[in-house]
Amino acid sequence: MARRSRVPELIAALDKDGVVRRRADLVSEFGKNAVDSATRDGAILAVLPSIYAHPLHRRSFMTRVGAALLWLAPDVVLSGSAACSMFGMDVHKLFPVTIVVNRRIRIRARYWLRLRRHEYVIPSTVRAGLRVASLPCALIQAWIDEGSRVGKGLILDAIRDDKTDAIELIDSFRYYPKISRRRELRGFLEHLKDGIDSYLEWVADQTVLNVPDLARLQRQKEFWIDGEHYFVDAYCDETKTAFEFDGKKYHNDDAARRRDIKRDRALATIGVQVIRFTFEEVTGSPEACRDTIRKTISARRPVAA
After folding, report:
1. What is the pLDDT of residues 99-108, one digit of tens each?
2. What residue spans define the domains of the chain?
């Protein structure tokens, strides 16, 4: 009787996104003949040396990350933007993925794989079966890998969604004795500790409100009105004027607009006027924004009797 081929079973075992296996393990389970035959026919492919996947899934994010972690094991974690995506964050790009190791290792470069060596073992967790850096560490790595603009955006998103906070990020500096643009990152996080929670608010603080007369405006002013809790970005108590800096990402959906309208209406009941500035105005014409703020405050200032 002819011996039944194990190739179909082998192919089926790998036919799922993210499933990768070492050649040695496949040989042990299905036999060398089946592995050689499937490889020769292109039914299974090496994603990395001796790490195999189904050809339909070999270029996917989960498959490549799984292959990299398996190939470089032990003591490796996914970090950077790719790791941020494992916490449900929208990221600028997934590739190249950053893998962090705490030992010296040499590999041939892959266009989709970036290797970082660390002196310290960074905290990690398991997400979807993959060993992933803690979110604060992943965010710091994204800052290092992608630059401050992308890094700031990711950090603001994470804090806005209550996934982490500035204190946790600053505390994670101990795992990164060498951070590119460290002073800039630390200053950015210090501002976030004070309640600046969107990129546009940060830009406004640095480019619009960074003059002596406007620096006196209260930041993240808190109001309780009819049992509801509200905040405004900047507030002039003398003239009861609030200034809002509306980033596209956080104010352009219908639910956000409804919240803004409800808040503006509530503030109006206690005599507070809300002035809003768009993303384009704050980033493109900070001087014009300053001029508008000054004119508004002047016009609303009480006239002496």
Report:
1. 999 877 878 7
2. 7-53, 61-193, 210-300
